[in-house]
Amino acid sequence: MLRHMTEDDLAQVREVDLKAFGGKGAATLQPRRREVMAAYLAAGGGLVADAGDAVAGFVFWHRWGSYGWMGPLAVDPLHQGRGLGKSLVETARSALSAGGARVVGLETWPEQGENLTLYSRLSFRWEGFCLLLTRSTLAIDAAIPRSPVDDPALVRRVAAAVLPGFDPYQAVAAFVHQGLGDLFAAANGFVLCQRGGSREGTDGLGLVRLLLVEPGARRNVTERLLETACAYFRAVGAREVVLPLYADQQYWLPGLLAGGWRIAGATLRAFWPAPPPAPRGTAFYNLVG
C-alpha cells in the first residue's frame, strides 16, 4: 500500500536507503542524514510503500515552479521485483504533474541497470551525464563570506532569467530553515550551500546545491560565488566540496580542473515527457542528494 510519508517514517526510510544503496547518497557521496530527508519532505512531499510492519520503499519529490524533480527513491532489496518502484515513480510523477510541473526529472547512478530499464519503460528520456566534482578546502585561502541572505525576490528573478518557469525558493528556504545550509548572493546570481551532517556540524562534505547566474553577467561572478561557497564550507568544517556539473555547462570543466577540482563520479539525468530547454547563463544545480 502506498501512502504519504510523514516525519515519523524517516528513520525507516533511511534504513531502506542504506540497504538499497549502502549509504551512497545519490549526489552528495555521503549517507543521507535524517535532517536532510526532513528538508526533502518540507520542500515537497513523499510516499512510502507500507508493508504493514515496515517501510518497503519510498520516493521524495519536489516542484521548483514548472520543474518537478523526483528522488531519492529506493526499494528494500527484500521487496524488489514486485512492482513497487514502478508504482512509486508513476504516483510521484502524477502528483508533480497535477501540481503544475511541465517537466519531471530524476537522477540515477549509471551502474543501476534495473533503474535505467524501469525509467526508460516509463518514457523518461535520458539527457546526459552530470559530473560530480570535488575540491579539498584545505588549500582554500579566501575570505570568510559575508552574512547569508534570505531574498526570495532575488532568487526568483535570477532563476526565471536562467530557466524560465524555474522557481526554487521553497526548496531553498526549506534547507536554510532546517539549518542545513545558507544562501549567498551577488547582484545577479546566488549560491545555495548545503552542509553535510546536521545542525550541529558537518560530516566532512559540503554540497553546492544550486548556483545560478543571470545571462550576460561576467564570468567572474560565477567564480566569486564558487569562492564564497568554498570559503563558507571551510569555515563550517567541511573538508571537501561537491559541485554538480551538468552536460550543458561542461565548458566550465577545463577551468575548474585547473583550479583544483577533480572528477569524483557521475550520475545520469532523465526527464519526462521531454528535457527542458538549455539554461541561459550559469546553472550548476543538484536537485537530489
Structure description:
The protein has 289 residues and is an alpha+beta fold. The protein folds into two domains: 2-127, 3-Layer(aba) Sandwich (Aminopeptidase); 132-285, Aminopeptidase, CATH 3.40.630. The chain is built from eight helices and twelve strands. It has helices spanning 10-21, 34-43, 84-98, 113-121, 152-162, 169-177, 219-235, 253-258, and strands at residues 2-4, 44-50, 55-64, 67-75, 103-108, 125-136, 181-186, 189-195, 205-213, 240-246, 262-272, 282-285. Strands 1, 2, 3, 4, 5, 6, 7, 8, 9, 10, 11 and 12 form a twelve-stranded mixed sheet that branches. Helix 7 links the parallel strand 9 and strand 10. The longest helix has 17 residues, at 219-235. The chain is globular. The chain starts with a strand and ends with a strand. 45% of the residues are buried. Mean pLDDT is 88; it is low at 25-31 and 198-202.
The average pLDDT value, as a whole number, equals 88
Q: Estimate percent helicity.
A: 25-40%
What would you give as the CATH superfamily of the largest domain? Gcn5-related N-acetyltransferase (GNAT)
Give the tally of β-strands: 12
CATH architectural type of the largest domain: 3-Layer(aba) Sandwich
Q: Beta-strand level of the residues, as a percent range? A: 25-35%
Structural class: alpha+beta
SSE series = EHHEEEHEHEHHEEEHEHEE
End-to-end Cα distance, whole Å, is 26 Å
Main pleated sheet: 12 strands, mixed
CATH top-level class of the largest domain: Alpha Beta
Number of domains: 2
Q: What shape does the CA trace take?
A: globular
Total helical segments: 8
Low-confidence stretches: 25-31, 198-202
Rounded to the nearest angstrom, the radius of gyration is 18 Å
CATH topology of the largest domain, by name, is: Aminopeptidase
